[in-house]
């Protein structure tokens, strides 16, 4: 079933949308229209929500974190627009992707424009804290690129280890969530240890999130994911459950490795059998447990920090919602 | 004939190369290797040279401008890597382009990484002047994207006016040259009027440069341009000489418009005839005169500014070299 979005996410969306669209309106008309089209497909606003909470968690006024929330959302969407093109994905949330509708060149430029805009939004704040935020966001962007490079590299390989797969996910998903969960505190000039605790929360939540996303990529229904059933398997994606299953080494593991070397096209039965092999080799159970473990690590990072306890509760609820998506 | 590179350019290259490669070495291994491959094809370093001169022009030590020089060169090369992919160009300076050698996804990521790195290089300086430089660079990047959007849009059109073609070139070429010619002065905290004079120098030089580039795209020989002869015509590119010729309205203009609507493939004789039509409609002479006029505007902008006269001479020589490429 699909869970209703919690108040924190709905609220984050409504708080940042005016600033987000005001920023996008600064773009050239074509990038602006494409960015608007892409943004209107409406993500869950997890990153802006984390950004806003991280400001409030250190006692700052919520408005202080808004440029940070807008900037992380822009970087997230820059990466989605470029990734959809690189991965050849023609649909996102039941609508054609930007490149599928407007061509590769327009999608490249729209992504480039959103990336540059994220920096502009932070630098326009003009404080030294905002510069630190912009530096951390640029570093997270490089991690994101590193992760996507690794992800693409995995496609051409027969075997991917669990550790390198986790490192890929830490780059592709963890780094920007870590930045999101800390950016409000950075903008508020919070002490380094506090920023680090929030950042760890985001990084571990990011891994939990990716593990759940990978589970949904194999076992999620199309209504929840907005993608065809089993699309990750069809693409021979070495996602985390698959990496675990390949390392397990038993008969299901060996059969899975043989199947991954085939080229398709695959019937629905082929995909269902591949999913069963991942499950038989322990990939499904491991990923679910690892997601729970990472979430616990995330929660313990902020439990001991000097943060507003009410806001810590909100962060914990948000994290649990994100990881419970599959249930 | 190909002119020997002047000392200013050779010197700029040697001054910034250590810092440029040190920056690139911070990237993930794949982006780093691709960026190195791309940079080793060796541009003329016009932008870094302008950046270094702009610092010295306001009396600053040359080292102060180095991060600015590196940042503009990174943004320039980010745009080349992405543009080569968007334009489908398989060769640059007689070597395969990044996407042609490593695929579209790797080229997109490599460009993204260089764009984010440019911001990092400036923010790492840590001064308020560097933040202003980063803001101006991000604004120039948006202009560059706007220009490339317009350029691609022109491809699908039968007619492009001279004014909109100049506006496109101001974005695609002028904005980053304007930023390059001012960034050293910005980093040195020079007064606003001085920065504006240098920026105007770069913007007008950029248009002169683009006019000459467009002339070379039609009449340049392959040894100078590193591209097949007449490649802009083959691509039905509405470059500045073509836009002027289309607006001229005489018989050659009309025939050119009809030819541009054909789809090819073109023989060498077809390309030669199209070039003759552009020339007969006045496109060649206009572009050459307009380049001269823009160069004069550039020079007059810095002639009256509060700048070191020796460095102004170097800027003028550099500009004249750039515009004399074709002779």
How would you describe what is shown here?
The structure is a homodimer of 327-residue chains. Chain A has a two-stranded antiparallel sheet with strand order 1-2. In chain A, helix 4 (62-87) packs parallel to helix 7 and helix 12 (240-248) packs across helix 13. Chain A is mostly helical. The first copy, chain A, starts with 6 loop residues before the first helix and ends with a helix. Chain A has helices spanning 7-24, 29-40, 46-57, 62-87, 98-102, 104-123, 128-155, 162-187, 192-219, 222-225, 231-234, 240-248, 251-260, 268-280, 283-303, 309-323; strands spanning 91-92, 95-96. The first copy, chain A, has a single domain (7-326), classed as Farnesyl Diphosphate Synthase (Orthogonal Bundle), CATH 1.10.600. Chain A is built from 16 helices and two strands. The model of chain A has no long low-confidence stretch (mean pLDDT 93). The A-B interface holds A 26-28, 30-31, 78, 82, 85-86, 104-106, 108-109, 111-113, 115-117, 119-120, 123-124, 126, 131, 134-135, 138-139, 141-142, 145-146, 148-149, 152-153 and B 26-28, 30-31, 78, 82, 85-86, 104-106, 108-109, 111-113, 115-117, 119-120, 123-124, 126, 131, 134-135, 138-139, 141-142, 145-146, 148-149, 152-153.
